[in-house]
Amino acid sequence: MPELPEVEHVVRALRPVVTGRRILVAELNLKRIAPELSRASFGRQLRNALITGVGRRGKYILFELESGRMLATHLRMTGKFVSLTTDESLPPYAHVVFYLDDERRLVFCDMRQFGRMRLITSAQRLPKELNALAPEPLSDDFTEEYFLKTLSRSRRSLKQLLLDQTRVLGLGNIYAVEALFLAGVNPLKPANKLSKPRARKLYQAIRQVLREAIDAGSTLQIDMADVNGSYLGTTERFWRVYEREGEPCLNCKTSIKRIVHGGRSTYYCPSCQAR
Ligand SMILES: [Zn+2]
How far is ligand 1, taken at its centre, from the CA of residue 184, in Å? Predict the structure, then answer.
């Protein structure tokens, strides 16, 4: 499943393809992708819509329309966009097709069919699941003060708190595990028991792992025209602890441990992250 840094790359790849383009025809071929709209209404509401930009909130991709409305898309497990000429045949699982005014088509493919689209009438009226999201982790809104306050108000384990997108945005399992290692704190520690100096370290670590992930991803260009390309996750990333069970810790050579916590695999160094 793509995490926030990967979605950021999808947004960057989409921008040059769709910004300034008008949707001539919008075809919803699989109803469940946009459950709130009928096929007819999907087509009607997006016909002739001018795309003025592409933004992101958490893992939601936001196509900004001239009308002030937005088309929000969540890729979930296997959703992906490809850009095709009108001659090329549609790839498998092409559930939504936008015919653009440059004689190309933007196609949303999704093998597992968990991807979702919805129309948002204005930025001031965001749906609940978008409104509830914590501040963007790399923006000025995600302050150290906010983070310390959030920790002090929760008795949940740090690992679980970091995965709660309404408290701390942008960390999936991998990046949560990496940030905890970088800060040298135990994943099972109750959030409100973390010392202030450690909490500050963890705050820095969160921003560092996300920045690193975005930078690492920028070497992998998403080729929107490649129907058979793997799209995301083509680079072998190096992780500090994630999926390194039994391997030596990078700091102290202690063997990395794996536990299952809250239904997810958690990796940590029992020595560097003892407390
Ligand atoms: Zn260690």
Answer: 8
